[in-house]
Amino acid sequence: MKELILVIAKALVDFPEDVRVDVKEDDRGTVFMLSVHPDDVGKVIGKQGRIAKALRTVVTSAAVKSHKRFLVDIIS
């Protein structure tokens, strides 16, 4: 799942070398914290959050087979 998020995020940004995904387990489930260059935050979020929502939808759809809950948080 981490690799999927990395591939999608690197395709969206101007600074792909600064894309990082950290994984954390908490009471909500598995949380993937996507970190990008400060100039690329807007590109990952998109207009009115459309790209972020689409990224979260892809991750949620890919997680159906594993019967786990995955969340994506975007940090700069």
UniProtKB/TrEMBL annotation:
Q: Where is the signal peptide?
A: none
One of its GO biological process terms is:
cell wall organization
Q: Which Pfam families match?
A: KH_KhpA-B
Which InterPro entries does the entry mention? Answer: KH_dom-like_a/b (IPR015946), KH_sf_prok-type (IPR009019), KhpA (IPR020627)
The highest taxon in the source lineage is Bacteria
Give the GO molecular function terms. RNA binding
Matching CDD domains: KH-II_YlqC-like
Mind telling me which GO cellular component terms the entry cites? Answer: cytoplasm
Q: What is its main location?
A: cytoplasm
Question: Sorted alphabetically, which keywords does the UniProt record give?
Answer: Cell shape, Cell wall biogenesis/degradation, Chaperone, Cytoplasm, RNA-binding
Where does the record say this protein resides?
A: Cytoplasm
What the protein does comes down to: A probable RNA chaperone. Forms a complex with KhpB which binds to cellular RNA and controls its expression. Plays a role in peptidoglycan (PG) homeostasis and cell length regulation.
Membership in a protein family:
Belongs to the KhpA RNA-binding protein family.
- Subunit-structure text: Forms a complex with KhpB.
The name under which this protein is listed is: RNA-binding protein KhpA
